[in-house]
């Protein structure tokens, strides 16, 4: 029987039962198959489960939704760093380096439980939205960008973003969709967003760090600034500080640890 330390952490929030929950599994060395990792992620059934084990210069890190492995995940990286610091596996005096499918990612400890992530910026190209995608989202055709595997769509008002009620079955054939707008007048936030990712086995991701690698470059051009306070307007909601620095994006958020336990995996 293999016993794996397991934690569940709410990320991009300072309140329990908000933000985006992530499962974190820690290995002394990694001996499970990809099928076993996927099965654990399906069992946990959160938007992402992260798997970590020591590397020569930090930690290896992989992320799985209940259905697929993903190349980049912000909230589970934030949660991973918080677990490593909170359990004493890493020193709060130093950043943590993660080796991932998206290259090396670095988490820096901040003050008041804030953690800063150093992620790659993403830029898009102008596209015409497929008619079926507009119909699935319930929006009129609008200009959009495509960035690697996701559409970025700006709507006219925050109210429109918050009130979207997509047809998730009709959305499933399409790539991931980020829907965003400027925040309403008087809001403390610069912009709001929502992230739909039915193809990854999740209808709506509560708070998506990787989406803000796209949103940072988009809103830097629109608002002519490089630092933002962002709100992801899912049912759970989450807050991110976002800063664009050249070809990197600094994502800063808080976390709350809710569950600590052990996975027991039979050895064949």
From TrEMBL:
<dbReference type="InterPro" id="IPR003719">
    <property type="entry name" value="Phenazine_PhzF-like"/>
</dbReference>
<dbReference type="GO" id="GO:0016853">
    <property type="term" value="F:isomerase activity"/>
</dbReference>
<feature type="active site">
    <location>
        <position position="48"/>
    </location>
</feature>
<dbReference type="Pfam" id="PF02567">
    <property type="entry name" value="PhzC-PhzF"/>
</dbReference>
<dbReference type="GO" id="GO:0005737">
    <property type="term" value="C:cytoplasm"/>
</dbReference>
<keyword id="KW-0413">Isomerase</keyword>
<protein>
    <submittedName>
        <fullName>PhzF family phenazine biosynthesis protein</fullName>
    </submittedName>
</protein>
<comment type="similarity">
    <text>Belongs to the PhzF family.</text>
</comment>
